[in-house]
């Protein structure tokens, strides 16, 4: 039974075809995204903030953050040419804090999201695919994390662990993965029922093969869309923790600026220039991420798209 | 049964649901030799598909055993992988069975990759596609399932299965969704695989006319049981079981039989009738024939076994002498 499949040669190249397809998919994604004006606006805002965060050392020298180096500066100065956002109670430039604070907010927002999605997806895929007691165990664990009130747990964790940026990321991830896990699990459960999974098994595919070739590609768009929507939540959480004094004390973040402004009495002094930039920065970045995320979700989430899953 | 490619002994598959247990396959014994086509005939919901899924280990057996080339089918990963190279299945619903995100090339190449079949992958895929009637294969490889017709999808599935050069092919309604012109080509392909390469094929169908076209043997299934099995010509020319007769009478080519339309739906497999499971719909019971023969009590009270009626011809009916 050697030549059931007749000998035949072909010039078809699977590799170059795969490349073409990926390129076509990218072009398609961009053309859909471009059609959404709000999303484009959000993307422009985000790029501005990212450039600012990366270029912080050139835009505003780090010395501006140090109270010692700012000892000769005027305190509580209103915005003027050399201090665009004024100065704080110690004479430090609020603009410098704003620029450097964007670094922490964006970095924590992104890395906490990546960690959240990684844990959530791993748990969701494992629970959904293997089912039975694996599912039962993992989902009880997820429920357990889900019902714990978020803020008290975050405060306890942040105070037990060292106050470093890494631990802030960890705290956010630990408290926010259950939502992703449930979402991914639900999607895995529907994909698992599809007949092509049966066909792959009938072809002799291992579980690993089925997950990698059939489950993940059909869940990935949902995960990706989830990423862009999880970032703003992470940023807000970081701000909350920093405002409560649980952030990294050595690094300026928008939340920390707000905390210091509050403690220094900026509100009763009516020193709006001290707390307004940080507050506005958070709102704008979160809004921009939400705008982009909503558009990405609309394009990628098969449930929101006709003809998809 | 010397060169038994496939041997099934008292195979049962039951599903448990909240409403109770459903006996989809209930004690089936059947053999398939290399180089023969067995048509498994029966109406929707009689357990045909469940039976062939069980052969591939896609449904765990509740009872009985299945041997493929003498090796038992079980749920161990390693035996399953080996089994699934030698046995391949063509699914009934080609639209659902193809991953919408995979190109036709990837769909056909999947089995080749899983089993590491020797040879140049694009050439193997091209060969399988053109064998299944998708020519020239280059036109189909870069396309996606939603870009081709249902009949072409069906042939993609067939290509994916024969690319692995299996010894046993399980075809679930292989031509139900095809045009008459392509149907002939696919049947010829299946016949050719059997005659030239010695495959064994189980073709599941609800269409006795199709069985007539390609089958060497026919097994008629009713509510999870085989009610009649034998050489195709023998079963078609000389049907024993009233169910087979009823099925045959509605095949347009069978002009000599008076049309017999069965009343009622297929009974619910979660509530199998006592006695002969066909008796609530049996024309012999309805017409009083069974009572005249004095077997009515057995029909409604005693389970029937397959009894040999001729050379290789078995049927399960109290009313047949």
Please, could you describe this protein's structure?
The complex is a heterodimer of chains A (309) and B (321). Chain A has 309 residues and is mostly helical. Chain A has eleven helices and no strands. Chain A has one domain (25-66, 94-304): MetI-like (MetI-like fold). Chain A has helices at residues 14-34, 37-54, 56-59, 94-130, 132-147, 150-160, 165-192, 195-202, 207-243, 254-263, 272-300. In chain A, helix 4 packs across helix 10 and helix 5 (132-147) crosses helix 7 (165-192). Chain A is elongated and about 85 Å long. The mean pLDDT of chain A is 84. Chain B has 321 residues and is of the alpha/beta class. Chain B has a single domain (4-315), classed as Rossmann fold (3-Layer(aba) Sandwich), CATH 3.40.50.300. Chain B has 14 helices and twelve strands. In chain B, the strands form two sheets. Chain B has an eight-stranded mixed sheet, with helices on both faces. A four-stranded antiparallel sheet of chain B has the order 2-1-4-5, with helices on one face. Chain B is globular, with a radius of gyration of 20 Å. Classes of the chains: A mainly alpha (309), B alpha/beta (321).
